[in-house]
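Appendix B: complex inputs.
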Amino acid sequence: MSISFEKIREDGLKKIDEAKDVDILQDIRRELTGKKSVISDMLKKLKDLSPEERKSFGKKTNDLKMLFFEKIEEKKNELINNSSSVSSDFDISLPGNLIKQGTLHPITQMQYDLNDAFRSLGFEIFKEDDISSEKFAFDNLNFPPDHPARATMDTYWIDGTENKRGTKRLCLRPHLTGASVRYLLKNGAPARFVYPGRVYRNEATDARHERAFFQYEALVVDKDISFSSGKLMIDTIMEKVFGRKVNTRMREGFFPFTEPGYEIDMECLVCNGKGCKVCNGNGWIEVMPGGVIHPNVLKSANLDPDVWSGFYTNIGLDRLVMMRYGVDDVRLFHSADLRFLKQFR
Amino acid sequence: MKISLNWIRKYVDLPEDLSEKQIAYDLTMRTVEVEDLIDTSLKYHNIVVGKIINVNQHPNADKLKVCTVDCGLDELKEIVCGGLNLYEGQYVAVALPGSSVVWHGEGEPVKIKENKLRGVKSYGMISASEEIYLGDIYKDEPENIMDLGKIEDIKQDELVAGASISDVLNLNDFILDIDNKSLTNRPDLWGHYGVAREIAAIYKLKLKDLLDEQINIQDYKSLPKYKINILEKEKCKRYLALKIENLYVKESPAWLKIALKSVGINPKNAIVDITNYVMLATGQPNHAFDSNQVEGEEIVIRNATKGEKIVLLDDNDLELSTDDLVIADIEEPMCLAGIRGGKKDSVLDSTESIVLEIANFSPNTIRKTEQRFGEKTDSGIRYEKGIDTERIDIALDLSLDLFNKIYPENKITAYGEVTNEHTASSEIDISQDFLDRRIGTKLSEKDIIDTLSILGYQIEVRDKGAYKIDKSIRKDSNGNPIEDKYYHILAPTWRSTGDVSIRDDILGDLARMIGYENFKRKPLPVEFNKAIKQPKEELERRIREYLSFRCNFYEIFTYPWVSDKYINAINSDIEKMVKLATPPSPEQAYLRSTLITGLLESAEKNLRYFNEFNLHEIAEVFEKGKYSPSTDEEILPIQKMMISGISVSNSNEKAFFDIKGVLESMSRYCHMEDFTFKKIDKPSWADENAYLNILSNENIIGSFGLVSLKSLHESGINNPAVAVFEIEMSKLKPFTSRTNKYISLPVFPQVEEDLSIVVDEQIKWKDIHYAIINKCNEVKFKEVYRGKQIPEGKKSIMFTISIGSDKGTLNSKQIDKKMRSIIETLKKLCGAELRS
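Resulting structure:
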């Protein structure tokens, strides 16, 4: 037997070593160890050898086969570890595939943020319909009979009812506060609820004025509750919504349905209270009128003002959203303009 | 409303270290919103007194002079000037470089620069009064400049070259610009004296009397009566008339003109200026009639008669209604009571005597008349807030004082007064316990009395008996009040016309004067007795989020009023729609009965910038009908919350099936009861072939489909395919919890096979699915193909079926058998041919 194990070994190892990829390596494996390989030929000759020869030749052949297997596996791992699925020109700077997702309206986003904040404080969510009556929009809320807001110049009255009175005179609600009495009539006190929604005013529109806009009102009614709880509540809510402490101040304000009434201003977030165009130079933005619920309103809700008290907080949603994003025209909220809405993804 | 701090200083001595900014801030916090604080001296910046040293002819211009002027600077300056009244030694107003002036008193202010005029350098400008905003106060002869030495009010020793003109002429002031809206409930604050009272209360200062010396009104009361006849007693509670003779029309003294001008009122003549000043000081409007024009020497306060007119100063007629209150003589109306005068009674240059009216009119009548004529006047704005009758007295005092000072020679020859009703002080009992409870901290008796007295309240402390006036008073274990003290309070009349009437109003005054920022911030009491659970609310949120986040819809809001164009485009039934009495515009009078109109309008707008998009809106729609959410007496139209969406794309198939897909998955993703689809009743906007109604328990709760070509066309949408859906929110039933079900995974492998069959066009997917679903575990649609290899009137449908057994793995024989059976069934029931 003139077989040079040495040569087969050297040639085989060289081939393995020079293999450029896994496919070539696969061919080499077949060539070296497959059915028609040198090793295979050698094993076929075993039967012609003497038992002694057979033993040593067989062992040598097997060792060589194992060595090739081992080296091929080694080479394979080496090739996998050092290779790429794609060419080096693969353009990683191309943009990723677009995720198809719409948006919630920025007003809804803010509303949900507030819902989350208020619900964490145990508030229920309540909704009133858009069309209400003078009784609920004004009479129940202690608006004097000749209050200017009752005029057709201010409120959108429903055709055919505009000259009637009370429950017979219907309107697109000019504020949310009427809903508070609806809730209290239905659920009684103590109560703690929010009622977001859209309200309507008959007025000329510009970048700061709209005919339809969004409010978010909260009411707490309880026994002997002090309005000083209102400020802490607002600070808590603002912090949750804006993710940081927002300075607020509480000052005198007047509304027919409150006594006392107050305004809550928040520090302008555009200039951090230094004074800028958005806040008219004074560093504060009026966002939340509120106050102690007027005894006459409690009476409208069949509650005894000697027993119950509470306070309103009315948040101007549009203004809060404008503040959050620096939106400069309130009319955009009703524009349905995708160029605007796409910015709130 | 504008308030001058110089004016305020007449009534209250402000501490020197109290800044104007602080006053504006504190007033905002305690009383009314100060929107702006204006430093009037800024306007006169760099305008100084100059002394003319000599005057020379300009070398290149006949009409110009070159003056050498001492402006108090290091050196004398040359200033070119064309004034006709220049002389050496004259004190003039020099607008130095850097100041702003108004050329010839007209247009926007212009900045002065060092300049050359016809070749000669000029350091600023020697000014006429109108050029430095003083034309109303100091009038120059034509072509003259301001001659400071001839102004009586200026003390000669103040005329120093370089002195600021605003110092010399007392023009340094700060103006508070107050938001009128924050004053609506405070008729007492519509004059400087009322605001001064608030400032005094905020800083605990003394409010001075309005006049230094009391005027003895009794003297006038004995004069001959001026006849007053009030026919409308409800509308005019008190009327006072004073005939003043020996007057003539002249200019007011400078201080008066400066005061008026500072708060935005143009001076006219001394008589009119006095009436304005009195109003601005006390908040009480008043009016001067030329007494010669008052026919019959009698004032009649009555409603206008039908067809009556007032001729206005500009010769226009104002046609009156029988609800309008007028001030008339015995013949005809002279002015619109409390709002504006007419031409007849005006103070003219020829006026020598007047009838001075100081009266109280009811806010209602004033507001209604103002609304009718669409105008608000300074006087009307004050009356409509509700002025107390007693204010007439202080206004009379101040008027007499001013007439005596400005017209020392005046003679009062007649006096008339009719009082039908005096404003009564509100009487209020308030317990110490009520204050303690509601304010949350205990106020001392002294604090309460001090705070309220400065505001004009009279307080009587009653140590016992609170339990009688406050039934909710807190009691100790023996049932005795913990605190039995209460206060019997008389509100000042100027707060008693509606503003202050109940104990909560007193609480309010105390709270604001102590300052809201000074109260301890208390946490809300918390009780854990129930978790907030509102499945319907949560469902609405899930649906919005599903549409926006999973389905690629953008949420929009549109107005509830809808244009006639869109109503017509979708053939809405106008008879059922709710209409506005005063709509935003005539063609937007109807309120929407469906959200589809808003979606179409929004799609049309967005098609200018985008080709394919999806929008959704959740809002209420309205329909005539009866609905009582709270009480039986209140009957509202039907109002339904709707969920809607629109899909705009290039192909009808895509638009339709995108929407269908969204609806099919909605119940699963949003955790609610599923709904089904059936073609029953075509919505007015729908394409007749491509719509489906959405059903819940056999009831139609919504629809979806392609929008008809007609509706699209009339909405201005031309090319793209548009599908929409609309579902009534209240008909959706949320699951109370998650309800996904688990089905055991198949034990034996399932075989999936793709099938491609050719069927007639009228065979629907539903037929195919129905035919074989019993023979398969699942039948999944893949696609429809129409084209070259498929004969006309036929279509090819490809789908995947999944077969298997729960008894063992199927062998190829069993599979073949099942497949043959399926194909046979398809042939028999659907006339299907297998596509090779």
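The two ends of chain A are 80 Å apart (CA to CA).
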